[in-house]
Specification:
It is built from 11 helices and 6 strands. By secondary structure, the chain is an alpha/beta fold.
């Protein structure tokens, strides 16, 4: 019985490793689509406001989407990504095959989905064996964002940014004050930065005046005299072409910060236009031919990584 169970567990591991390898090959053009979510990265995006211990409960396996510390060892379907995981994985699988009761896994809940604190191999085996739910000790992280179990890290980031945009517009009423002001950013926290820019502009407008300038007046002045000239420069010089998938709002924040740093270094007369060119030349993506050459240099390494992942599994057949 013991030899049969061990062989079955070993076969199960070969099966799930085969699935993982083929999934990695088929998703080579979009590798992030098969990545398990990292709890720490999700917390950086969502910024939970506290935690609450929820105790023991049964959790649906398909709602476990990430891990606190082992997110690189398993893919999005909790399939093991490396051969060295065999020993621990097969020992858990043998326990499953023999109906041995294992302790509950420990999970964090955030936005309606779960991340493994302890028990990654148990979750992996349970999912591979088609188990619907698993007993878990749960700690809930308080968040205002709901997460869909199928989300990638990038999709989650976009949802958080959209949530922050709506909150920003609710607070500032910028879309009502200036209908043309369709400011977009691509990273969490940047709308808050823009709001701080408006408050900073308001502070300077209030200097040497008897009656305090309203936020609405300051927002209109900031957009007209600060944001719009920089946005026009970005468009006229086609600077966004060097920053794929970014927006005028992103580049505005980067250029302003860089401009202040350069003025501290070279003096207050340093021009905005020179700061924009300097930032683009330093941090913008190289022109197409340079990018293509870099891609060609990395291609052999990427092929070798897939081959190395495949060979250890092949040798065991």
């Amino acid at each position: 019985m013991g030899d049969y169970t061990s062989q079955t567990a070993d076969d199960d591991f070969n099966r799930v490793r085969t699935r993982e390898i083929f999934q990695r090959l088929f998703s080579a053009l979009r590798p992030t689509s098969r990545q398990l979510l990292s709890l720490n990265e999700v917390k950086e995006v969502i910024r939970p406001k506290g935690e609450t211990y929820k105790g023991l409960d049964a959790v649906q396996i398909d709602h476990i989407v990430g891990s606190e510390g082992r997110y690189r060892d398993f893919n999005k379907g909790f399939l093991p990504r490396y051969a060295y995981l065999r020993g621990r994985w097969t020992s858990i699988d043998r326990a499953h095959l023999l109906d041995v009761i294992l302790p509950p896994v420990r999970l964090y809940e955030i936005g309606g989905v779960y991340f493994v604190r302890d028990g990654n191999h148990r979750v992996s085996v349970a999912k591979a064996q088609g188990v619907y739910a698993i007993d878990a000790e749960i700690t809930s992280l308080n968040a205002e964002i709901s997460i869909d179990p199928s989300m990638t890290q990038e999709e989650l980031r976009r949802q958080v940014v959209e949530y922050e945009r709506k909150e920003f517009l609710t607070r500032t009423k910028l879309h009502q004050l200036i209908p043309e002001a369709r400011i977009r950013v691509t990273e969490p926290g940047r709308y808050e930065e823009i709001e701080q820019h408006i408050f900073g502009h308001k502070y300077f407008m209030n200097q040497n005046v008897e009656r305090e300038v309203s936020f609405s007046t300051a927002a209109i002045s900031w957009y007209t005299n600060v944001y719009r000239p920089i946005a026009r420069l970005i468009r006229s010089e086609k600077l966004l072409s060097r920053f794929p998938k970014r927006t005028e709002g992103d580049l505005y924040l980067w250029i302003v910060k860089h401009w202040h740093e350069l003025k501290q270094k070279y003096g207050p007369e340093y021009s905005l236009q020179n700061a924009a060119y300097d930032y683009t030349n330093r941090f913008g993506r190289p022109r197409f031919l340079k990018r293509f050459a870099a891609w060609l240099r990395l291609l052999p390494r990427r092929i070798a990584e897939v081959v190395r992942a495949y060979l250890p599994w092949r040798k065991r057949l």
